[in-house]
Amino acid sequence: MKYRRIRDLREDTDMNQTQFAKILGMSQTGYSKYETGENDIPTPILIEMANYYETSVDYILGLTDVRKPYPRSKTIQIIDDIKD
Length: 84
Fold this sequence. Notes:
Layout: H1 4-12, H2 17-24, H3 28-36, H4 43-53, H5 57-61, H6 74-83
C-alpha cells in the first residue's frame, strides 16, 4: 500500500522527506519507505503524523476524504493538557 496522502500532506507544508523525518525523529530513508509503502507505518507514527497535520489517521490511510480531524476524546484532551 502506497501512502500517497502522507507525501501530499508533506508537500503541502513545503517540506522535503529529510525535514519531516527529522520531526518524527527518524532517518530520511526510513520515512521514504513509508511513502513508498515498502514499510507499514507504525500506529504511534501515524498518530504523530495525524496530530502534526491536524487531520485523522483515517484520512492518512485513505479511509475517508474528509481532512478535518475528528473531535478528540476527553481523555486525550486531559492528557494533552497535562503535557502542555
